[in-house]
Fold each of these.
Amino acid sequence: MKKATFYHAGCPVCVNAEQELLNLVDTSKVNLEVVHLGEHANRIPGAEDAGVKSVPALVLDNGSVLHINHGATMAQVKG
Amino acid sequence: MKKATFYHAGCPVCVNAEQELLNLVDTSKVNLEVVHLGEHANRIPGAEDAGVKSVPALVLDNGSVLHINHGATMAQVKG
């Protein structure tokens, strides 16, 4: 079982896009942990140690850190 | 079947991280197309129309564009 950790901070616009990404993941092969750093600030040092520079970010069990920027449209921002 | 398109340009350091991301995807639920824009420049206008501002990026079938930055370590760059 692979392990991946998705760190985010609850940005409302980004949550939908993040959910879409998470929906793509094969949870039969990947143990995916989702960590809301705004609610669990005690996890911030571990995220920093893993190399997280911004959120949202996906940390893989081989040490790779994928920083994700969601290019929200103005229409999405206007909701 | 969901559809997702992964655009990249063959950055050697990023390819490994991208492959890791792609390995996470549940291909039984997602039709994932990988497009190398360096080799298929005719796909660039479509990527731009979809909202791709940088590569690598993952475009989802609901219109969301996730721009992915891989924070490569200097050790990885030194390879």
Note: The CA atoms of residues 13 and 79 of chain A lie 8 Å apart.
Amino acid sequence: MSTDTDADAETDPNSERAREELIELASEFYDQFAEGDVPRMRIPTRTKSNIEYSEEKGVWVLGDRRTTRTAKTKAGAQKLLKAIYTIEFLAQQLEEGRSSTLRELYYLSESWDNEFAQFNDQDDSNGLIEDLEVVSGVTREDFHMRPEESGATLMGPLLLREQTRRGEREIHCQEDVGEGGYQIPNNPDTIEFLENDAEFILCVETGGMRDRLVENGFDEEHGCIVVHLKGQPARATRRITKRLHGELDIPVVVFTDSDPWSYRIYGSVAYGSIKSAHLSEYLATPAAQFVGIRPRDIVEYDLPTDPLSDSDINALESELDDPRFQTEFWREEIELQLDIGQKAEQQALASRGLDFVTDTYLPERLGEMGVF
Amino acid sequence: MSTDTDADAETDPNSERAREELIELASEFYDQFAEGDVPRMRIPTRTKSNIEYSEEKGVWVLGDRRTTRTAKTKAGAQKLLKAIYTIEFLAQQLEEGRSSTLRELYYLSESWDNEFAQFNDQDDSNGLIEDLEVVSGVTREDFHMRPEESGATLMGPLLLREQTRRGEREIHCQEDVGEGGYQIPNNPDTIEFLENDAEFILCVETGGMRDRLVENGFDEEHGCIVVHLKGQPARATRRITKRLHGELDIPVVVFTDSDPWSYRIYGSVAYGSIKSAHLSEYLATPAAQFVGIRPRDIVEYDLPTDPLSDSDINALESELDDPRFQTEFWREEIELQLDIGQKAEQQALASRGLDFVTDTYLPERLGEMGVF
């Protein structure tokens, strides 16, 4: 096994670059020591007040404010110590062509010889990995750090090649997969898109709707790549959506329930989230358009609904103030929703029959949007 | 599309049988009317008091108590009306070779012409589908009713053939899949196992541990089929586990966190759950053995832990009274856990290094258990 993985590491330029950036960080501490300075690390501040909406890029990015961690205080020294141990672990992991989960890193720190370097809890280790992402400009995926779960799937007219630890796999995402579809790996940058016959990408919030589209053959009939978001999408799902859009040069549309939480799902695909603002350019697809379910669909199609809860109303009101939703479209839709006091699920379209979504709703809406 | 699916329906004996059973149910109502009787349906009672542990089968089954639904009362008549509309929908769905989700059924009822037949909420429609399963002896899967989400995966030395709506797919669950593995479809009875080189089946609770085993090549090295449970396993996951065990004739072991909720996950794989007691013989694998994490592992390997919460303690105490856990093994382990007051996660093994689980823990434990 180790022979294979070593070979992979040598030929993976991303791993090599990630390793170099990490060692560069550590060597800065070394130079600071050598020059008699107190070691320090300057990190862009990752708070709500240092997040800016970049009109030019259409995504949230970090502002200019910086925090300095120095070894002058005991707490600061301990942070730097943890960073050094983590850098050593990551550099070794990359050299060996291995990977680990964020949770494993937390537990692994218990085996480190210096107990001050050990993490207190997983927020501590997760935060440090985010620090290292921000400072090094390398993504967590390129450190070979995995989340606990990803698990979203893709189905559509696309032939891809995935570089796995066991060699390359060429997979056609309709012909070589079962009804469950192609499982998106934790790091989709191991994928190369080889051939496709796709007209657009449709990101779908719920599993029930994803299954409906696939059963009705919507992907085959319309040259559509169906990406299942599974609620708030994992980084891997957002990353592959962005890459599909950029490399295949086709539209991305997002299809969710009609409630404020679902609009946030759309927002995280399109604009990026505050938590991962340092990665917006890597993860966000500003050109992604919102298909629905729209509050006006509730009215026009007389869909079965549930009443808005207090927390729904608060979330909608906070979206009215959110720069990401400062468009005429969103203001009208959100105000209409507050007015009617109702929300609806994607599957509420089934009240018009199981084929309504694929025969009527999506063709009409995507026609209006210029996607068809 | 419809031509294909019609063709599938004609050649699928399960669909044909399911349709006949449903129509048989409806024709009983017809006969009752014809004979001047008030229509009625006798249903095994699905409450905790009518669930028995079958020593012989090693699973939970329904007892002999029956409830009678009759049209003598308005509520009873409405239940039967809903059953008739649902039967009509399901029979048509099966005839057309289609399927739908439980949630779609609920919404679809809004389009029915008789408003008394419409469901009040999803518990109402889910409950009726369970009634029809119990009375007809046909599983939900054979009615072509899907859950909202399934999404578990499988990786291992197994070549299978899945009958999809788009034709047959032959997939090797190591060579033809990416690192994410093979996505188990909603109805695994569409799968035929063709060839395998498997020694045993390892069901794993968490995604992080599943990824660790796959990265370390545990499935390749030991001829192991790794089934990801994803927490409390979906019916599809339990069904494929049972079929793999029965048809490949190899041991099943279950590997989870060490806490009462995880022991219930083991219990639902091995013995079946109260909610689906009418399906235990279809879903449960009584021969499944528990690998760990065991409370004694916490002590022996000095694993990082969290303290038991009050609800953990209550759940452990209720397991001591549960007939499924009335063995010396479980009594000792649960009493030890209450004694030490601690629980641990699978990934806590990483505190001994990333390879400890595959190089030491699992080989030792599976050796003791006679699986290796």
Note: The domain at 153-369 of chain A is CATH 3.40.1360.10 (Dna Topoisomerase Vi A Subunit; Chain: A, domain 2).
